[in-house]
């Protein structure tokens, strides 16, 4: 069973470092670490770890439950009406009473540039991690939500 744990630890590390979009890519990255796994073994490991596909900043990718994406972004898209930014903050306008849902989805999407969110009733303030990064972050959020 130690081999299973080592392989699963490697899967966790790989998925945490860079987006992985296919099982073939994940198998290749494991192979680069000297870890061989059949497609069936990899599928079982992914099920045990709670790995699933979710929208990421650069398209769909595999994530582990609790590692972002607990609220799928597809249904959240229809709740967003506009995204704007200042030098220091991104402002997401939502339908009435939808801001908390949108903020949680953004928090759980695992966008590295997001320091955090604050939700009102129909507005979400998104704080960028870096000073002066609001405009670039607004573009990323727009692309992520397809707006």
Overview of this protein structure:
With 147 residues, the chain is of the alpha+beta class. It has two domains: 2-64, Winged helix-like DNA-binding domain superfamily/Winged helix DNA-binding domain (Arc Repressor Mutant, subunit A, Orthogonal Bundle), CATH 1.10.10; 73-145, Gyrase A, domain 2. It has six helices and six strands. The strands form two sheets. A four-stranded antiparallel beta sheet has the order 3-4-6-5, covered by helices on one side. A two-stranded antiparallel ribbon has the order 1-2. It starts with a helix and ends with a helix.
SSE layout and pairing:
Blueprint: H1 2-17, H2 23-32, H3 39-49, E1 51-56, E2 59-64, H4 73-77, E3 80-85, E4 90-94, H5 99-108, E5 114-119, E6 123-128, H6 134-145
Antiparallel strand pairs: 1-2, 3-4, 4-6, 5-6
